Amino acid sequence: MREVLKDLLEAVAGGHTVGLGTVVRTFRSAPRPAGASMMVDADGRAVGSVSGGCVEGALYELATAVVEDGSPVLQRYGITDNDAFEVGLTCGGIMDVFVEPVSLATFPELQGVADDVAADRPVAVVTVIEHPDPAWLGRHLVVRPDGFEGTLGSARADHAVSDDSQGLLAAGRNTTLMYGPDGERRGDGMRVFVASFAPQPRMLVFGAIDFAAAVARQGSFLGYRVTVCDARAVFATKARFPVADEVVVEWPHRYLQAQLDAGQVDPRTVVCVLTHDPKFDVPLLEVALRHDLAYVGAMGSRNTHDDRLGRLREAGLTEAELSRLSSPIGLDLGSRTPEETAVSIAAEIISLRWGGKGTRLSHMDVRIHHEPLVDGAHGDPAVDSKVP
């Protein structure tokens, strides 16, 4: 929806109803990702694209009909459809497109979403795309880091979906989620699409070693944009780190400082220092620990850690700044291989993000999801507090 948001807002603010089609799910080689949108305004003008031209003609007709009828439609386009060649989706992919009428009446929270997007504030829009009760279709829930606005149809559904959307929003991901008709997490019948408007968080991995390759894979899996940085060109190559979004040859502290100066690092950024070499990691940690980052972890033995702390104190870092350092890096999982160590690092990052303690859930009798969303207009947290 981001690419059509300006035109959508102008049309809706003018009192018009717009037909909006959004890709909510893709299979195989679909041409556009989930979240791609196309709108048809009151003048018959089409803005945006869901397939790069393959199904836009058919979608235009459907969006126009939805505006006239007032009822949302979930439509699948793909090579296996009877009309696949007619609409032109011959790439072998399949996509589900949710088409809805959007107006001030159906989406009164749209202006607030647009304001958040313009200010680069994280916000997610949840839309009911499938439900046994047609009255629920097209309802929206706007999720922010500190709460939610609107309703899907019940307080239970609102709290369950908003809780689950937090992780997607933090990662800047779009996806569909399945629930029972009243938001039961182990049920089915209700499907919602979560569109996250947030820059993808970054993971900066310093030290082009075998552990870094495993950490980069974990970071990518968790939804981070991963950068691997090392001053040694012979080791910092794309061939050694194919999963990384970027591989940079530069002294680590210089690269991090440049990224900070350019505004490319924010409080969601995680930093993994795997060099365990004082000439690299001490100058780097001097920079990292003096800024507001989500996580700063450094690899090394306890002797290395003690030596590192001494050098950082000599460099003038305060005890408060040193307390931000996770070293030795990772949770105690008994890890030995690079892959197992990467899992322990990822587990520590997740634990610090959501306030988890790393305790086995089977040994606990408390709410699984930490910091439940409670909105003043919606009352208590979700009922099923121990359902994952």
TrEMBL record:
Superkingdom of origin organism: Bacteria
InterPro entries membership: MoCofactor_Util/Proc, XdhC_CoxI, XdhC_Rossmann_dom
XdhC Rossmann domain: residues covered: 203-349
Domain XdhC- CoxI span(s) in chain numbering: 12-78, 118-180
Name of the protein in question: XdhC family protein
Organism whose genome encodes this protein: Arthrobacter silviterrae
